[in-house]
């Protein structure tokens, strides 16, 4: 009898406790910080603010951009890697600071494959090979012919030593079996000014950086380095189309969160971002920046991260590029 009463009392106690238990609040229950690892005004900042704005409008989340620039984007990435894995801190990473920087910087504080989780791929942009509109080079074949006739006589500029854009030039030199001298600049604007002035023969550039000068007729595009043509310049061939099979060098952008962020939160953010990328408005706004919208599952994006991380180790080492 006593045992029966005790069991009944225990059952009632458990039922009352269950009745008073508060369900976990739906995500997100507060503003999400989106770390932008570059200063305001650049391509990564513009893309980040576009994503934040659209998530606020369509998902009714509060997403707050927070610029944490410096050291090629690695300072902002490191801050994201140190954040608590609650889903309320994410960062807009890109190929340069996620898979190239780890092989350039000797004392980087994060391992992108271990300290962060890939959440949502947002966009990619090819490198575009351009020359001054008055240049003797009308096609990429002209460049290769001239380089073979005068080894090391040609120069190409890039926005910086060790960037994906610089390394795209090194990969092309290997593919074409030619030599060209690399001239690194401190940013895209300085590189653009020198190719416009005719001080370097060619420029490797992101599409967003060169788009206005190309459209104004001051620069002549010769090729893009991605597997597919750029929708901003559909008449410009890919390097692969010009005889360099499987040539594909592009820069991607995507959202990352600290490792161990709950999988349901990662899935929720991925789903909302992919909804945005499927809309004509979002595609058009990303294209206006010279980039291409492209959605993936978090698993697909994670696989891309790991594949590129391994691939670019050899590319960086072969180039000899380092950053202190």
TrEMBL record:
The keyword Signal applies. Residues 1-26 form the signal peptide. Keywords: Signal. The keyword Signal applies. PANTHER family: BLR1237 PROTEIN (PTHR42928:SF5), TRICARBOXYLATE-BINDING PROTEIN (PTHR42928). Belongs to the UPF0065 (bug) family. This is LacI family transcriptional regulator. It comes from Rhodoferax koreensis.
């Amino acid at each position: 009898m006593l045992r029966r009463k005790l069991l009944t009392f225990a059952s009632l106690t458990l039922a009352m406790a269950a009745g008073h238990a508060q369900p976990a609040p739906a995500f997100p229950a507060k503003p999400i910080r989106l770390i932008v690892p570059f200063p305001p005004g650049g391509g990564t900042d513009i893309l980040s603010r576009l994503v934040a704005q659209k998530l606020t409008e369509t998902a009714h989340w509060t997403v707050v951009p927070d610029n944490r620039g410096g050291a090629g984007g690695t300072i902002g990435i490191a801050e994201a890697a140190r954040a608590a894995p609650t889903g309320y801190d994410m960062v807009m990473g890109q190929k340069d600071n996620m898979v190239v920087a780890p092989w350039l910087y000797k004392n980087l504080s994060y391992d992108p494959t271990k300290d962060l989780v890939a959440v949502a791929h947002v966009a990619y942009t090819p490198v575009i090979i351009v020359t001054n509109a008055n240049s003797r080079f009308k096609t990429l074949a002209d460049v290769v012919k001239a380089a073979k006739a005068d080894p090391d006589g040609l120069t190409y500029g890039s926005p910086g030593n060790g960037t994906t854009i610089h390394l795209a030039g090194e990969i092309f030199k290997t593919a074409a079996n030619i030599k060209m001298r690399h001239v690194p600049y401190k940013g895209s604007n300085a590189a653009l000014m020198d190719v416009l002035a005719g001080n370097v023969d060619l420029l490797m550039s992101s599409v967003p950086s060169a788009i206005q000068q190309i459209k104004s007729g001051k620069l002549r595009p010769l090729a893009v380095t991605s597997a597919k043509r750029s929708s901003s310049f559909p008449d410009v061939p890919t390097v692969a189309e010009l005889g360099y099979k499987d040539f594909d060098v592009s820069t991607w952008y995507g959202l990352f969160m600290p490792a161990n962020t709950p999988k349901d939160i990662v899935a929720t953010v991925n789903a909302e971002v992919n909804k945005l990328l499927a809309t004509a408005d979002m595609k058009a706004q990303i294209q206006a920046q010279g980039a291409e919208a492209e959605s993936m599952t978090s698993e697909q994006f994670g696989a891309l991260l790991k594949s590129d991380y391994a691939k670019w180790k050899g590319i960086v080492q072969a180039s000899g590029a380092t950053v202190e």
